[in-house]
Amino acid sequence: MSSDKKDQNEKICSQLLASKSNRRDFIKTMSIAAAAGSAALTAGCIPSANAASSEEMKLRWQEFFKENYRMMTQEEKDETVARLERLAKLRNNLDLQMSSLPPIEGVLYGYAFNITRCEGFMECVSACVKENNLDRKTDTQYIRIFEMEPGKLDPSTGDGQYYHEVPVENKFYMGTQCFHCENAPCTKACPTKATWMEPDGIVVVDYDWCIGCRYCQAACPYYGRRFNWGQAEIPKEEITLKQHYLGNRLRPKGKMEKCTFCIQRTRKGRLPACVEACPTGARVFGNLLDPDSEIRFVLKNKKVFRMKEEIGTDPKFWYFID
Amino acid sequence: MTKIFNNCLIVLCCAIGVGGQAQASEKSFLDEVNMSNEKFDNRSVPVDKLVIQESVLAKEENQDGPFRVLTRKKLIGRFKCSSCHTGKAVTANQGLELTHSDIALKHGQEGQALSCIDCHHVEERNFLEDKKGRKIDFDHSYQLCGQCHFRQKRDWLGGAHGKRVANWAGERVVFNCTTCHNPHSPRFEKRFPATYSVPLD
Predict the structure, then answer these.
(1) Is residue B83 part of a domain?
(2) Of A59, A170, A291, A298, which sits with the fewest C-beta atoms within 10 Å of its C-beta?
(3) How many domains does chain B have?
């Protein structure tokens, strides 16, 4: 056992000496060697030597020293995705299919919500929780549905915690989630540039660069962001295995997360889980740059409005009435 | 004197500043969206999930051209209707189970409630019939529903009513009217929501 480890250390050291490398690579390789050899490093994010196999430890070290997602080449993205898949297998025996699929050319996603049609069944909320691997312990939800008095259009005046038979006479229902603002204040507030808008209009978070300062949560005028106070708890059989690096992969403790228009689905042509689950057809999703798309039909032919339009955030989420 | 001059300068700067801001906020990504009139080929997107439900080519087109609708006939338990409706008399003990006593008709406003033959063809029971006497296939019921619900139909064609199946890209496959609405009782029934929300933080 110990001779195996020694061999491995020697191998790593010889690799280290043989290859020319820059400072970052040097630190990375050194730390892998250190992790493999020493049992003393046990604090914080450094994996404990006896708890983890050396393969797992190596992967975790490589993960620790990776770049911001936006700085990675496609090759590096593939590598980190492969590492995360392997780590999930080693740690939790999960067979993930993680993707780092780039945006589709000529696509800008937009969303419309029909406040006449929504009847408050909340199928969207439970579909979202399942699809995006949200924490069941704290009942984290990206979508909120408010039961509203007629004539009011500000969700803060509505009841977001109703639980009775719906729809109720003379009430209407209004859903909120991340609006994927074109001029998103949350991305400007982030001190580590861990959140940004992708070219297809989806505002995403790099969970591994987020430091959990919650500035973005404070900056969002729509309460669109959620914080992980602990490691998410999900029954193993309910974990969605088709994941995206910027989407529904399992978030570590202390990270921000939010609706990503189900990036793992939409970049493969599918509808977001909430749209697919909606029993009344109140949710419309599509490509804003396609003049013949459903979303463009809504913008052209229906009475639409956006929430807090006057603050200039330019959300890509419209409400409309029949 | 210099004080007045300074004040003037400040006012002038503010005016320029406000003017500049106003100009900036007038420009929006929506201009880009509205200007984008180039046709986007939805089928060029590699679609991950195939639509498994059976569908037929709709008899009408929308702004994007032909599209498909989900079928209905296979979901009607006792289709074809003509297998019973033969014109022959039925004995009473069979009649009890064979009549459509399970259907509660709740369609149309009070006092103007619809009856069976408002939609169903009187002679040819495998078909529906609209008010102009056109024979309509069960798979294309939107042609019938649209004669009263013309506004909903226009929205359905365009994409503001109803929904697509599974994908935003690929070939357009949409839910039929009867996929969501029970034609005999089209309003959604009251029920408890699927889940509930706890307060934020």
Answers:
(1) no
(2) A170
(3) 1
From A65, A99, A133, give the residue that closes a domain: A99
Mean pLDDT value across residues B154-180: 95
How does the average pLDDT of chain A come out, rounded?
87
Tell if the CB–CB gap between B49 and A161 is shorter than 8 Å: no
Residues A155 and A266 in one domain: yes
- B54: distance to nearest CA of chain A, Å? 17
Q: B16 in a domain, yes or no?
A: no
Is A276–B201 a contact, with Cβ atoms under 8 angstroms apart? no
| Nearest neighbour of A281 by CB, restricted to B180, B198, B201 | B180
- If asked whether residues A52 and A165 sit together in one domain, one would say no
> Distance between CA A99 and CA A105 in Å, rounded?
17
User: In this complex, do A268 and B193 lie within 8 Å of one another by their Cβ atoms?
Assistant: no
The last residue of a domain, from among A46, A79, A99: A99
Chain B residues in contact with A174 by the CB 8 A cut-off are none
- In this prediction the ipTM stands at 0.82
Distance from CA of B83 to the nearest CA of A (A): 33
Name the B residues in 43-62 with CB < 8 Å from any A CB. 45-49, 62
Query: What local confidence, expressed as pLDDT, does residue A308 receive?
Result: 93
**In contact, A215 and A90? CB cutoff 8 Å:** no
Binning pLDDT at 50, 70 and 90, where does residue B1 land? Answer: low
Q: Is B38 on the interface with A (CB under 8 A)?
A: yes
Q: Say yes or no for a CB contact (<8 Å) between A278 and B155.
A: no
Task: Return the sign of the alpha-carbon dihedral for residues A68, A70, A73, A74.
Answer: positive
Count of domains observed in chain A? 2
Phi, psi of A286, deg, nearest 5: 180, -170
Classify the C-alpha dihedral B11-B13-B19-B21 as positive or negative.
negative
> What distance in Å separates the CA atoms of residue A109 and residue A290, rounded to the nearest whole number?
10
A104 within some domain:
no
* pLDDT, tens digit, 9 for 90 and up, residues A109-124: 999 999 999 999 999 9
User: What is the number of other CB atoms lying within 10 angstroms of the CB of residue B101?
Assistant: 9
CB contact under 8 A, A290 and B33: no
**Is the pLDDT assigned to residue B145 strictly greater than 90?**
yes
